[in-house]
Amino acid sequence: MRGRVLFSSRSMAAVALALFAGASPALAAGPRIGSMNVCTDQLLIPLADPDQILGLSRYSRDRSESWAAGEARKYRTLSGGAEDILVLRPDVVVASLYDKRSTRELLKEKGLHLAEFAVPRNLDEAKAQIRQMGEIVQHEDRATAEIARLDAAIARARDVVAAKHYSVLPLSRRGWVSGGDSLLSSLLTETGLFNVAADLGVSFGGYASLEAIVNAKPDFIVVSEGGDRAEDDGRAFLLHPALERFYPPQKRIVIPDRLTVCGGIMLADALDVLVKELERVER
Questions:
Q1: What whole-number distance in Å separates Cα of residue 128 and Cα of residue 120?
Q2: Can you give the pLDDT of all 283 residues of the chain as single tens digits?
Q3: What 8-state DSSP symbol labels residue 134?
Q4: Which of 184, 214, 198, 203 is nearest to 274 (CA)?
Q5: pLDDT given at position 230
Q6: From the CB of residue 58, how many other CB atoms can be counted at a distance below 10 Å?
Q7: How far apart are the first and last CA of the chain?
Q8: Taking a C-beta distance cutoff of 8 angstroms, is the pair 265, 46 a contact?
Q9: Residue 212, C-beta contacts closer than 8 angstroms, at least 6 positions apart
Q10: What are phi and psi of 85, to 5 degrees?
Q11: Dist. CA 67–CA 31, nearest whole Å
Q12: Residues near 263 by Cβ (< 8 Å), separated by ≥ 6?
């Protein structure tokens, strides 16, 4: 009887130890987070543990907008409204200041903690947001490592651009030009390239005429896609005969939008693409 009692006590102790060991990862886990915006999605995914991510924005799986679209398929897609977020009750909701204000205010009124991100205009602001997200998910070491990777990519790009004094013009659909106060321009000028948007009187961004673009005479235009197919009038602008005459493929640097629209660790990939494109057009 005593032997059985002793055995039972040991068994109970073992069970308790196993339960404690099983519970400890949950106790050590960081905050549970929901993301409302495709840009906060892309800050969150590489820095958080998978079990910290309760849901991502409705555009998280759009490959044209997010470099992390494939990874996003592992997670729940949120509607963009307050209802499903309230059901999940995350510890933190990460959102953009451009997300619907009424939704953000409702979530705050219901007691949820919101971390709101502005649109970064330069690399310093992008790095600050990586650090901020690292603090939110409680993985500051990962944020530090990603910033170091970004700095290394900047250094590689500078080595390629150094002493070449190229001028460029970031150009999008319908003649939209990214000016000197934009993230894309910051990315380019950080490497030593000169954005001629300033010569067109464009600061953050604005439309420029075909004549003004040609007269600016940049060495290269920076576009988000190559090819010779125009699916609509917006894209057709970039394939106008006059623009193609002065800027054929060997005068176009192609950096996909999904690498530059948001600030985050994908900017390192954008810089590596820039290096490859410069090597291509210089051949």
A1: 9
A2: 334 333 333 433 343 333 334 433 344 478 999 999 999 999 999 999 999 999 999 999 999 899 999 999 999 999 999 999 999 999 999 999 999 999 999 999 999 999 999 999 999 999 999 999 999 999 999 999 999 999 999 999 999 998 888 999 999 988 999 988 889 999 999 999 999 998 888 888 899 999 999 999 999 999 998 876 656 667 788 989 989 999 999 999 999 999 999 999 999 999 999 999 999 998 8
A3: H
A4: 184
A5: 59
A6: 16
A7: 88
A8: yes
A9: 200
A10: -70, -40
A11: 24
A12: 39, 43, 119, 120, 125, 126, 129, 130, 183
Q: Which fold is adopted by the domain 33-118?
A: Rossmann fold (3.40.50)
Which CATH number does the domain 147-281 belong to among 3.40.50.720, 3.40.50.1980, 3.30.2380.10, 3.40.50.620?
A: 3.40.50.1980
């905050």: which residue's tokens? 31
> How far apart are the C-alpha atoms of 146 and 133, rounded to whole Å?
12
Helix axes 140-161, 183-190, angle to 10 degrees: 60
Whole-number pLDDT of residue 231: 66
Phi, psi of 194 (to 5 degrees): -110, 125
Check if the beta carbon of residue 78 is closer than 8 Å to that of residue 164. no
Every domain of the chain and the residues it spans = 33-118, 147-281
pTM over cut 0.90: no
The answer to whether 33-118 and 147-281 have equal CATH topology is yes
List, in order, residues 6 or more apart from 25 with CB less than 8 Å away: none
What would the DSSP string read from start to end of 75-119? SPBP-SSSHHHHHH--SEEEEETTS-HHHHHHHHHTT--EEEEPP
pLDDT of residue 199: 87
- The bridge status of strand 33-35 relative to strand 114-117 is unpaired
